[in-house]
Amino acid sequence: MDETRDSGLLSTSAVLAGVDRELVVATGADRVRFLHGVVTGNVAGTPVGGGCHAALLTVKAHVVAEMRIFVREAELYLAVPAGQGAATAQALSRYAIMDDFAATPSAELGLLALLGPGSSDRLAAAGYSPVALASRPLWSHAEVAGPPGPLWLARARQLGVEGTWIGGGLVVLERLTEALQRLGVQRLSPEVAEAARVAAGEPAWGREITDDYFPTEIGLDDAIDYTKGCFLGQEPIVRIRDRGHLNWRLVRLELGAGEQAAAGSAEPAPGDQLETDLRPKAGHLTSVARLPDGRGVALGLVHASITSGQRVRIRAAAGVITYGATVIG
Fold this sequence. Notes:
Elements: E1 3-4, E2 15-18, E3 21-27, H1 31-38, E4 51-57, E5 63-71, E6 76-81, H2 85-93, E7 102-105, E8 109-115, H3 119-125, H4 131-134, E9 141-144, E10 151-158, E11 161-169, H5 170-182, E12 186-188, H6 190-200, H7 234-243, E13 248-256, E14 273-275, E15 283-290, E16 296-303, E17 311-315, E18 321-327
Parallel strand pairs: 1-12, 2-12
Antiparallel strand pairs: 2-8, 3-6, 3-7, 4-5, 5-6, 8-11, 9-10, 10-11, 13-16, 13-18, 14-15, 14-17, 15-16, 17-18
């Protein structure tokens, strides 16, 4: 399939994008109670057909795993970052000492996303109707039948826009992709998808989401439910909330060449340091991308004292100031 180079998802009827996730299936009579007690999300308060964001933390509140949890009738689907299925299942199982609980990465289900305001219409044209999800909360989901075969659909938000996550067997997903292509739906290139992610401020595993920071420092605020009761790492998380003090925060930055040191200087890259006159160690870049119109965008961890609209300098690993940037959120 040809890949569109247009990142204007908000103005595009529908585009296909990859979902950098894999599914772990959680089973056992204690699956809901057990997960509710260890992760940060409100699993027990999520009805069948609903979903929630959650993280598994250490007792010191550093991130071990991040997941979207979908509650089904007989099991739970945990959508975890790609490559983290086995590690997440193993980490959860360590805490299931006397619980009837098992977590197994799925080798049968794949995921893709159909994003944009026209995604529901395009799915309906391909023989699937996600209309029932449109009026339900984000991450609601359902099984649907259609010509290529059965699929699992979830109302999702990715790359800054709403759409549908589509789960199913690889053959069924390939047939659906072909049907959508015949309807004129294009697929985002990985480069454009990454630029859209960075522009939307969505943290990625291994980039922004690491065990070096607290979840509230790296954009995982919505994964924490403070009303649900105990979970691993709860005490430091509540202490941080009550004191209202974070050392770092994840921000979006707009890159500009106004302070570029010299012609031919290297492009900014993850790991480059950020500085200001008052704070020589203001933070560092975590992700960098170029939008199709040429504008540079980035995500970075900055000191909590750095405010939106503030200018920072980017210092490359070689010690050269390459670019200036503006904190935009």
